[in-house]
Each structure stands twice: as C-alpha cells, then as structure tokens.
Design goal:
Elements (H helix, E strand, L loop, with lengths): L4 E12 L2 E12 L3 E5 L6 H9 L6 E6 L5 E4 L13 H8 L8 H6 L15 H13 L5 E5 L7 H18 L2 E5 L6 E2 L4 E6 L1 E6 L2 E2 L4 H12 L2 E3 L1 E2 L4 E2 L5 E2 L9 E2 L2
Parallel strand pairs: 3-7, 3-9, 5-6, 6-7
Antiparallel strand pairs: 1-2, 1-4, 8-12, 9-10, 11-12, 13-16, 14-15
Length: 258
C-alpha cells in the first residue's frame, strides 16, 4: 500500500441475498485527500462504508488500512429519543468515555459553541449534523468518513457545511471519504469523485460549473461558485436490477450523473 494511503480497496466484492452488492471495487484515499462517493439507491455505498469501517468483511478482494488508523465516522442519521435529557456537551462527552478531552474546541471548530448546553432534541437538522461532525472529530481522526453529511440541511446550509468540511480537511491534514446520495452536485473542493453502482462506473476530478445556468438559477452565483457538477461518460448502462447492460451502452455525450 502506498505510504501515504490511509485506505486502499483492491477488487472488493460483497454479496447479499443472492445478489452482487459490490463488484471489483478499487479505490484509495490518501492523507489530505477528499474523495466523494456518489451513486443511486442500492449502489452499495453504505456497504462499502461499512467495509471501510471494519463492520463488514469483503467476500472477495481486500481492504487495507494504514497501521493504527484512527477513523472518525459521521453517520447519515442518528436517532435520539426526544424525551431523553441530553445536552450537546454530554453527548460529545459520551462519544469518548474515559477521555477528558474538552468539548469546547470541537464545537468552536464546527461553529456551534453557543449550543453547548442546548438539548440535542431541540436542535435543527443543520445543527445536529454539525454536532455529529464534532463527534467524529473527537476521535482525532486521520480519516473522516462522512455518510451524507448534508442530510436534512437546507441548500444554503449545505454549501456552508461542505466548505466547513474542506476547511477541517485542510487544517488537520486528514483524509476524507464522503458519501452523497443521488446528487447532481458535489463540492468544488473535492479532489476526486467516484461514481458507484455495484462497481465503479467512473472516477475523476469534478468540473467547475460556476457559470452553468441551471446551477446559477438554483443556488445563485455566490453559492454556485462553491459547487461543481460532475460530468462524465459511461461506456455501459444498467438494467432495472442494477446489473450491467451492454445494449446501447456507448454514450456519445457527457451527462450530469449522480
């Protein structure tokens, strides 16, 4: 494995209920790199994340991690009983039992220090996502794994959250594996995009679309400048089950795809 590689998947495969969930997936996340994983429902994104986290073992291929790798994980969502009296401060303290790491710097870094004594059940969607990001940072991670971090966040909040993630990446020098769900946009600061649909359909650098009329209309110029659309070509298509179909699979024109 490359000396700077934090994780390296080599032809990873995983089957469940008699069907292929992942097939020959190979990717690598290096220190300081931000890689965004996109794909439709059922593409295998969650399964791949669980393999990266060590919660599942691949049925074929290998997943290597750097020795002693510290991973901070931000789940797609987390249910907390609304009637449970739990402040943001206590929630973060529970994330690292036995450690006396102060929570104030974590909350300051994600810009919600003023919510320290707020009840978790009273937080907005965007505030809760920042708390979950702070929780992931409490592990002093070398690799951040973020599963749809903008879930439940409005459009303006999404742009701010993505920029915050990039700032954290730059400040800590950690690698970031970020998952997006069927999106037509990814962060402009993403180093590499991997499109997954059981296998890797394509991967590469996102293209800047600050002047794209559709995104200017949706986000406005200022927000659009921080976002990018990933335009690429496939040499195949998928049938209704997600399997590769070789009929009419030669795409002559690039298209926006997520």
């Amino acid at each position: 494995m490359n000396k700077q590689a934090l994780i390296k998947a080599d032809n990873v495969g995983f089957d469940a209920a008699g069907r292929h969930i992942l097939q020959q997936v190979s990717l690598e996340v290096q220190q300081g790199q931000l890689l965004t994983l996109i794909g439709p429902n059922g593409a295998g994104k969650t399964t791949l994340v669980r393999i990266v986290l060590g919660l599942l073992q691949p049925h074929s291929g290998t997943l290597q991690r750097a020795a002693g790798l510290r991973i901070g994980y931000m789940p797609q969502k987390l249910f907390i009983e609304p009637t449970l009296p739990l402040t943001v401060r206590r929630f973060l303290q529970l994330a690292a039992p036995g450690r006396r790491q102060p929570v104030e710097p974590l909350l300051e870094e994600v810009r919600i220090a003023h919510l320290m004594d707020q009840q978790v059940s009273a937080l907005s969607g965007g505030e809760l996502q920042r708390v979950l990001l702070a929780r992931a940072l409490s592990q002093s991670p070398q690799l951040l794994v973020l599963d749809e971090p903008a879930q439940g966040v409005d459009v303006t909040g999404q742009a701010e959250l993505y920029q915050l993630i990039n700032t954290i990446r730059d400040r800590h020098g950690c690698g970031v594996l970020m998952v997006s769900h069927d999106l037509h946009l990814v962060m402009a600061t993403t180093d590499e995009v991997v499109c997954l649909n059981q296998h890797i359909c394509c991967h590469g650098k996102p293209e800047h679309v600050s002047n794209d009329p559709a995104y200017l209309a949706l986000f406005g110029r200022r927000e659009a400048e921080t976002l990018a659309v990933y335009t690429h070509r496939h040499n195949h298509s998928h049938d209704l089950t997600g399997d590769i179909s070789h009929d009419g699979c030669n795409h002559d024109k690039g298209h926006d795809h997520a």
